[in-house]
Amino acid sequence: MSKHSKALESRSSFDSESEAGPSAPNDAPPPTFQESVENDAAAFKTQFACIEIRPSDRIRLINFREDDISAVHQVVRTTWSRGIDRVRPFGESREMKLYGTPWSYRSNGDDDARRLLLRIIECLHDIGWILQSAFDITKNSSSRDNLVFRKQDPAPSPCDWIAVSFDSNDKLKIIGSPPPELVTRLLLAFGVEIQRHEATTDRIKIKFWGHPWTPSGQDTVTTSLKLLSLLEVLEICGFTLYGTIGARHDDDTASADVMVCQRQKDWILGAPILHR
Fold first, then answer.
1. What ranges does the record list as Basic and acidic residues composition bias (predicted)?
2. For position 129, what pLDDT does the model report?
3. Cα separations (Å) of 62 from 66, 146, 206?
4. Are strands 146-151 and 93-98 parallel, antiparallel or unpaired?
5. Within the chain, where are the H helices?
6. What element of type H or E holds 48?
7. Residue 46 buriedness (CB in 10 A; 0-12 / 13-18 / 19+)
8. Residue 143 has what pLDDT?
9. Count of CA atoms in the C-beta half-sphere (13 A) of 51
């Protein structure tokens, strides 16, 4: 075959392929922008779950996996000394009914109930459920904040945990495992404002002069300054605010929010503080 014939044959083959369109592997058009976004969203979808604290004795776990529910059940069983009455499906949730009334209003608070919440929050944190927010979306006269969690993978490093409450008209309590240096710093910060205090390995209790939690007039500013001083002391000792939890009660009484604080395990004075 002459060179001229080969050239004509090659050109004819090229023209035939062009008219037929692209070969089979390229028949599918590329994804649209919307399809790409939807695929990426599915791959990186954030998981949320929720805990309802229902008056006066129930915990409802919503949108958690079975192994997460089992972990929380174990924490409740070992932390709440009065025990679990029953566990049952409730709508699309899993409900635990406790013996006793941990969520009922008490002017001096319920340290055991707060310790239970603290241990549940710690348990979920250690398996990758991070407290996103705590808020009440109902208008019921008796309700507590819903605790909304976001799934994080991998789970964050373990932490030390404390809960800070403002009880009666004049008491500050810190439960969990408050370190000795926290007691020392609090006494230095508040000095003559303190009427008396108690400190054990699992609780600090401070009674102030006056009624700082029911202030009026310019005393409201003094109470706010007291809060800022408290946050400064907590941070000096390595603790950062993780979240707050509030409640309303049947007689329209409201409890002051409880502050949940965390500190990296093995934190030492002068080390950086990791805020979430």
1. 1-14
2. 98
3. 11, 10, 37
4. unpaired
5. 3-20, 33-43, 66-79, 111-126, 180-190, 219-236
6. strand 48-54
7. exposed
8. 66
9. 23
Spatial separation of the C-alpha atoms in residues 199 and 12, rounded to whole Å: 95
Which of 165, 186, 64 minimizes the C-alpha distance to 115? 165
Structure tokens of 7?
């050239």
Tokens (6 digits) for 203: 């609780």
- Structure-model confidence comparison of residues 23 and 201, the more confident one: 201
How far apart (Å, rounded) are the C-alpha atoms in residues 35 and 13? 36
With 0-12 / 13-18 / 19 or more C-beta atoms within 10 angstroms meaning exposed / middle / buried, residue 124 is buried
Query: Around Cβ 174, how many Cβ atoms within 10 Å?
Result: 24
CA distances from 265 to 32, 55, 156, 232 (A): 47, 34, 11, 19
Is the model's pLDDT at 16 over the cut of 80? no
pLDDT in tens, 59-95: 999 999 999 999 999 999 999 999 999 999 999 999 9
SS3 189: helix
Q: What span, in angstroms and rounded, lies between the C-alpha atoms of 110 and 123?
A: 20
Query: Peptide bond before 154: cis, by omega within 30 degrees of 0?
Result: yes
Q: 157-209 pLDDT, tens per residue?
A: 999 999 999 999 999 999 998 999 999 999 999 999 999 999 999 999 999 99
Taking the mean position of all CA atoms in its chain, how far away is CA 240?
Answer: 13
